[in-house]
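Onboarding guide, step 5: your first structure request.
Type a short instruction followed by the sequence, for example:

Predict the 3D structure of this protein.
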Amino acid sequence: MTRPATIEDASSLAAISLEVWLNTYIRDGVNAFFADYALEQFTAARFKDILDQENENIWVSQNAVGIDGFLRMSSNSRAPVDIVSDLEIATLYVQPRHHGRFEKVGETHFRIGDRAYPNNILHFRLNRSVADNA
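The system replies with structure tokens like these:
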């Protein structure tokens, strides 16, 4: 099921963020630079702050046990190119064991410091009859 995130979800969002971010970007060992970044960015307090902002929306995917992924959308976000929406999908994090439902259609890069790390651009094809009824 999907639903809007609540303040009570903040610690779960932080935990999923740590899991996904470390699994994505930390491949050859953890150094202090990356550990400090992750531990500063992915906290329950930071997610509570995000959820309090009008221009931020987080939707969670929840199974019978708990949250297994989330989508964060930021409005009034300056686009990197002209003629596109000011609504940005800022984060799409899904626990690795739930991957495989999206099709990879490209790649971009997440930059931290002077290094760039690949990010997949994913596409999910809706069932035509579902899309037509939406």
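Each response can be followed by summary notes, for example: The first helix runs from residue 10 to 25.
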